[in-house]
Amino acid sequence: MTERDRLSFVLHGAVVYSKDKDEMNCFEDAYAVCKDGISEGVFTKLPEEYKELPLIETGGQLIIPGFTDLHIHAPQFQFRGNGMDIELLPWLETYTFPEEAKYSDLSYAEKAYRLFTEELINGATVRASVFATSHRGATLRLMEMLEESGLVTFVGKVNMDRNVPDYYVEDTEGSLSETEKWLNEAAKKGFSRTRPIITPRFTPSCSRELMTGLSELAERYAAPVQSHLSENLSEIKWVSELEPDTSSYADSYVKAGILKKSIPCIMAHCVWSEEEEQEILLENNVFIAHSPDSNTNLSSGAAPVKKYLEKGMNVGLATDVAGGHSASMINAVRSAIRVSKLRNRLFDRDTKALTFPEAFYMATKGGGAFFGKAGSFDKGYSFDALILDDMRIPTTREDLSAMERAERFIYLGDDRYISGKIVAGKRIR
Length: 429
Ligand SMILES: [Zn+2]
Hints:
By secondary structure, this protein is of the alpha/beta class. 37% of the residues lie in helices and 22% in strands. Helix 12 crosses helix 13. The structure holds zinc ion (ZN).
């Protein structure tokens, strides 16, 4: 069987995916067609022209596009679930920096990144944008492992030249030259599913000189950028002290030249972004990585996500391990809805709660858009799919609609109910 054959097949089962942020396409019995790794669409009766393709019979299982985790820290996977009683800045000092510093040791990185990669393969994530550490060697190793996994990812070597402990800080020039070396080495690997993303940790740990240098690298190497924005109130106050000539936290990225239209960008959190900042994000097509579990665990707040969606901003969902305690995107979808209800009920009656279709959309087509055409079974989209044995979740109801099954999977399901996973046309489990 050739690679081309392997990437062309038909999946038969119940199918659910987002039409847009408000509506779902739901089929109780349908055929999702993948040709050369690209979706041909979903059909209730299989068209003649696809009858020659191999048919994968799921026995009525539920087929959904799989989730994009728009923001996750691979090295923080080892301490997930710990340190959940402190806020962002002390949490970074106590847990994050000591653990990330260990990745200067390649054999440790190898062991730790193996566990991380296995978790992503087994879970509901098909695509992810990943922070590594500042270490070039370990970051390349992580990229190799993710490439081998079949997942589609962006991976970033982290940059930091200030306000980080001596044992982990970089100097400005060294940080830039290591990043350029890493970009060149990554290009030589010839990855097809793994791409580099420029990753200044956040304004408090990056001087403007470093950030400006990184923006030049992003343009020269046509790489996107990821960072953090307006997560925690103490952090925001600190940014205003460190960067007194800026009018908002986002403006510190604009002034450094790293947040601009010509560079695709993901900003995690945006919990406290006010009108001016929202305008900057909207004008520059920035993707917001909404991380409800992380924002709850680190007492950061509850982002006005519904408002962002209504304004037409790009919003995806993220686990933000290890601010988020779990790498499960199923949890992220569920938490996004629940946190938005608390925001609405407790202190912001003007911002409505998220609906199920909106949260599902953010986890699929919304965040997937950062990767191009991903997160849907519409014709022309890269074919990602989860096959879910959801009817193993006990119930007497055999008449559940496809939509009800999808809802039930989000609220009650976990990785154990994933019986198959396809990423960009390739079966990875
Ligand atoms: Zn983060």
